[in-house]
Amino acid sequence: MTERINIAVIGAGVIGKRHVHEIAHNDACSLAAIADPSPEAAPYADALNVPYYRDYREALARLDVDAAIVCTPNHTHLDVGLACIARKLPLLMEKPIADDLDAARRLADAAAGAGVAMLVGHHRRHNPRVRAVKEAIEGGRIGKLVLANIMCLMYKPDAYFEVPWRRQPGGGPVLINLIHEIDLLRHLCGEIVSVQAVTSNAIRGHDVEDSAACTLTLASGALANVSLSDTASTPWNWDTTAGEDRALFDYRPVPTHFFAGTDGALTLPDLALWSYRGKKGRDQPIHDTRLCIVEENVYAAQLRHFVDVVKGDARPVIGGHDAARTLAATLAVVEAARTSRPATPSVIQ
Ligand SMILES: NC(=O)c1ccc[n+]([C@@H]2O[C@H](COP(=O)([O-])OP(=O)(O)OC[C@H]3O[C@@H](n4cnc5c(N)ncnc54)[C@H](O)[C@@H]3O)[C@@H](O)[C@H]2O)c1
């Protein structure tokens, strides 16, 4: 392997371009090639002065490629991922790991079986705010978790729905947005063992849901509520409140994620920590303080971690099987809403 990690970016759409930008700003890696069949991709690669391929398999066959970042549509993740694994190339696979559980299992098993490192792009895990809250919860600062309450309520502009698949089952906020919340919950609060959910398409009237109310039971016995909508004009969604991509989204740092414990409470992304100083009780004064962090660009942090993974210096913070569990819990929400019964996430070994 050369000193710099040479990375091929497969799929140069919205998130692919973000990764290209981060590679350009990281001294430990270089952009080896761009692969994308769309007509805009060749001039984009030309402007960057990097080799361009319509077919990703040709890009992967280059001798100087050390790793790949896969940013193609969800239904292609299995084929593209298996091609990387066959070449023994470590990969950063964008989330979701795949579009169904069978594909997710096959990918995770193939990577593990071949000894190829796969990091999945649940980028919030690299956010220092998330790290601080995880440390605080695990360090017992709110006692035993009782209930988490998460709002994921946004208004997606009408033009977003001009693309037909976004109006069809699978293209709605459950599989696009809720999956981030599910991964965050699993990361911070532990496994989800049961799911109840109701979805609605009453506002937009598309075949896919525009809103959902979900109640989840965690392995610890704690509960979590997630309110989800892509047709609600609010600032209460991670993209608006966490400020991870201020070029793409407005930034309003109000709390959206609430974690209530027996000894205190935490909110994200503002990092408020509430607790009683003496005797506990709603008749007593409750005080708030802030957890301290150093702000970081999460996509840059994710790439730094990926470079360490490629070098063999770190294990992926979220690998294939872990990401498959996040997908399983998200698909359980779809199942619970469809059947109007509690659903159990499929077990991923
Ligand atoms: N982590 C995040 O926050 C985040 C954000 C957005 C998207 N994503 C994920 O990234 C992936 C891409 O999403 P997007 O919004 O960038 O989509 P997009 O439609 O903007 O870009 C996808 C690109 O892939 C290209 N493509 C399609 N088939 C290909 C193939 N076989 N080989 C190479 N290129 C191919 C398309 O031409 C397009 O340019 C999805 O899995 C999505 O869920 C993650």
Bound molecules: nicotinamide-adenine-dinucleotide
Beta fraction: 15-25%
CATH class descriptor of the largest domain: Alpha Beta
Tell me the strand order in the biggest sheet: 8-9-10-7-11-12-13-14
Q: What is the architecture of the largest domain at the second tier of CATH?
A: 2-Layer Sandwich
- Mean pLDDT figure: 96
Largest sheet: 8 strands, mixed
Q: Might you state the CATH topology name of the largest domain?
A: Dihydrodipicolinate Reductase, domain 2
Classification by helices and strands: alpha/beta
Q: What gap, in angstroms, lies between the N and C termini? A: 32 Å
Number of domains as seen in the coordinates: 2
C-alpha geometry: globular
Query: Poorly predicted ranges (pLDDT <50, ≥5 residues)?
Result: none
Helix % is 25-40%
Number of continuous helical runs: 10
The succession of helices and strands, N to C, reads EHEHEHEHEHEHEHEEEHEEEEHH
Radius of gyration: 21 Å
**Strand runs, count:** 14
CATH homologous superfamily descriptor of the largest domain:
Dihydrodipicolinate Reductase, domain 2
What does this structure look like?
The chain is an alpha/beta fold and 349 residues long. It folds into two domains: 112 residues, Rossmann fold (3-Layer(aba) Sandwich), CATH 3.40.50; 183 residues, Dihydrodipicolinate Reductase, domain 2, CATH 3.30.360. The chain has ten helices and 14 strands. Strands 8-9-10-7-11-12-13-14 form an eight-stranded mixed β-sheet. Strand 2, helix 2 and strand 3 form a beta-alpha-beta unit. The longest helix has 20 residues. The radius of gyration is 21 Å and the shape is globular. The structure holds nicotinamide-adenine-dinucleotide. The site of nicotinamide-adenine-dinucleotide has 21 residues, from helix 1.
